[in-house]
Amino acid sequence: MNIQKGAEIIIRDWVRLRGRERLLIVSSRRYETEMQALLAAARQVSRHVELLVLDELSMYVGTYFNEREDAFDAYDAIIGASEYSLITTKAVKRAISRRKRFLSLPLSTNDGNSMLSYEFLRVDTAKSKIMAAAMLDYYQSASRIDIKTSLGTDLHLNIKGRRAGFFNGCCKDGRGLSSASVEVYVSIVENDAEGTFVLDGSMGYIGMVDSPVEISLHHGRITSIEHNKSGKKLTEYIRRFKDPRMYHASEFGIGLNTYSRCRGCCYIEDESAYGTFHIGFGRNIALGGVHDAVGHFDLVAHNADIYVDNQMIMEQGRIMILEPHIYI
Q1: How far apart are CA 29 and CA 56, in angstroms?
Q2: Spatial separation of the C-alpha atoms in residues 72 and 59, rounded to whole Å
Q3: Are 226 and 179 in contact (CB under 8 A)?
Q4: Residue 66 CB contacts under 8 Å (≥ 6 apart), including other chains
Q5: Which residues pair with 199 in a beta bridge?
Q6: Which one of 158, 247, 248, 278 is at 20 to 30 Å from 328 when CA atoms are compared?
Q7: Rounded CA gap, 328 and 323, in Å?
Q8: Which pLDDT score is estimated for 324?
Q9: Which among 101, 164, 157, 176 is positioned nearest to 132, based on CA atoms?
Q10: Mean pLDDT, contiguous 10-residue spans, the chain (328 residues)
Q11: Within a 10 A sphere around the Cβ of 305, how many other Cβ atoms?
């Protein structure tokens, strides 16, 4: 798929921009091609399209929008097309509370290709909404998630009082808030994740693991990371934030995009891949939680048995309540 086609999907199907609406695109010069493609697609609909270019902020772009909660007040819709996700920031939370639309579109990739050219953008938003609705029924009034894998994951998450949601790209379906990541998510009670998580998929922005990494959690916080090659990379990545709050588990998600594959090329595609699950760490303010931090990252794994309040919803990576009809 070419970049311009991807940009048109974003503007037409996901943001659903209308004439006379004011759109803000937040990005950086690193993504000049993508910015211009989004601008061209948006200006076919509305003349009121602006760019906010934020270079040099890198992984701290979230702090910028935590400190400027009113940054989006003048706009009807906002696209966060920077390298890192803005979705868990205070500015986004405020925008959604004021009935604006925000699409999280982190453009970071590891393979030299534009994320706007990835095939997973072709996801059927109507189909993914139906899939999510079926899964969300199991989360109603739930208080606990248990995760086990053959590699040794044995993880227990408290979600009592937390409301689950879903992303499928379409802001309308997400009541104004959405992400390019197609998933069902729920925030974790910030001091109550316990057990062992064996990471065998993607380390988010870092890419795929070379070999599985055992991670221990206690009272909601990472207490140890296996000291192998990938574990060292992950440890160094977290340290770069210089914020101990980044060690706290804050989100649980399950990927629903049948066009996506967990390949380590694009973390948004990785965590969207159908049948994978991920644990998010750091800030979760806009996801229904109360934990603040300078950023947010996700770790993706495969082939889990997952129980929500003792009801099995996934077996060995197959979402039982959706199959066998999901590929029809």
Answers
A1: 10
A2: 20
A3: no
A4: 89, 90, 91, 292
A5: 213
A6: 278
A7: 10
A8: 53
A9: 164
A10: 96 96 94 96 97 75 84 96 80 93 92 95 93 92 96 98 94 91 95 97 94 98 98 97 96 96 95 96 89 92 96 93 59
A11: 18
- Identify the three-state secondary structure at position 204: helix
CB distance 29 to 5 below 8 Å: no
The token pair that represents 314 in the structure block: 């996934």
- Distance CA(86)–CA(268), nearest Å, equals 13
pLDDT at position 298: 95
- The residue behind tokens 């493609």 is 37
DSSP string, 136-191: HHHHTT--EEEEEETTS-EEEEE-TTPPPEEE-S-TTTTTTEEESS-EEEEEPPTT
Rounded Cα gap, residues 258 and 225, in angstroms: 31
* Residue given tokens 């399950």 in the structure block: 254
From residue 139, how far is each of 222, 281, 301 by CA, in Å? Answer: 25, 20, 21
Report the alpha-carbon distance of residue 98 to residue 212 in Å, rounded. Answer: 43
DSSP structure class, residue 117: G
Per-residue pLDDT at 57: 58
The pLDDT value recorded for residue 56 is 63
**Pairwise CA distance, residues 284 & 197, whole Å:** 19
Separation CA 67–CA 57 (nearest Å): 13
CA contacts within 13 A on the Cβ side of 6: 21
Q: CA-based Rg of the chain, rounded to a whole angstrom?
A: 18
How many residues are there in the chain?
Answer: 328
Residue 309 phi, psi dihedral angles, 5° rounding = 50, 50
pTM of the model: 0.89
Q: Which residue has the tokens 């890198």?
A: 58
